[in-house]
Amino acid sequence: MDLKEYIIASDSELVKLSSKGDHQAFEYLFTRYREAIRRLFEQRLGDRDTAEDLVQETFIKVYLHL
How far is CA 14 from the centre of its chain? Predict the structure, then answer.
């Protein structure tokens, strides 16, 4: 897949590719949602460092359960 195809791919397509071992597809999912998830955690917790840690933990779990 070339760069353009990853950028326009749907979330479900990226998940399917990620589950087949496509690390670049997972990177695009991470890039799409990292900031929104971090903001959510930071709003709830009031601590940016903890929010960043939770984002990492969240995506590790997502990756392991694909």
Answer: 10
